[in-house]
Amino acid sequence: MDMQTNFLDRLFESGLLIETGVDGLYGRSGQFEDVIAAFERLIDRFGGADGAEAMRFPPGMNRAFFETSGYMKSFPQLAGTVHSFCGDELDHMSLLKCMEVGEDWTKDQEATDIVLTPAACYPLYPTVARRGALPMSGKLFDLQSYCFRHEPSKDPARQQLFRMREYVCMGTERHVTDFRQSWMDRGVEMMKLVGLDVTIDIANDPFFGRAGKMLANNQRDQNLKFELLIPITSVTKPTACMSFNYHQDAFGTKWGLNLEDGSVAHTACVGFGLERIALALFHTHGLDVKHWPEEVRKVLWG
């Protein structure tokens, strides 16, 4: 039995994760949620004094905004859309007949105006753009949302619906790159406080297709993305639990995000994979938090 399946089975047996019959779609126990809540309080202790504006978006976003984002050009394999029944009574009877005989009853469903949110920051950019020019001192936002990525897996650290906590910075190039570096330093410090061994490495997003390879190479060559890696189901291939991304002026240009002097805003973000961090803690310290090292418990629960 491989490490991924073994760890997943142990999580099910302990009740920390609840099986649903779909790989990567799990319920969470109260203890699992308590660990996430405690770690979010630790995030607040590190970032709370920065003056970020908090926003919480639902796990679905405006399809028109999603289309404008260009996500489908780069990551069509990960996207999820929301479809619904829009027919009449005859269509309904046909649907029920398909279900009764085991045929595909979803074939006549129609796309709605909602898509599943792929990253917590995606609804933020059009929201801020509608406000007008950003101050020259920049702007900082605190986000958290369930996100969807269509990549079913037996690896418990690769879930299809998961929570992402993000800080997003908008401003000048110097402002946002300083922000990113400060959170890279903070991220290492935070993980050390909770007893996790980490490394930070350059990375790239999973761009699709042959053109995607060029985008990935460009992203790595320009040091636009770094990840904080923690062993969860593999020592040789540790899991990315935090990401530190510099978008240059790509989102600023796309959404019309400008500073007060008329220049295009640069953006950067730091993302915490909350389920992954919780899993890293359970993998490292054991499945019963009562037996975790006292110094780790003190950091998380005081």
From TrEMBL:
Alphabetical list of InterPro entries matching this protein: aa-tRNA-synth_II/BPL/LPL (IPR045864)
EC numbers: 6.2.1.n2
Keywords associated with the record: Ligase
Ligase recorded as keyword: yes
Keyword Ligase: yes
A molecular function GO annotation: ligase activity
Record-linked NCBIfam families: PRK07080.1
Name of protein: Amino acid--[acyl-carrier-protein] ligase
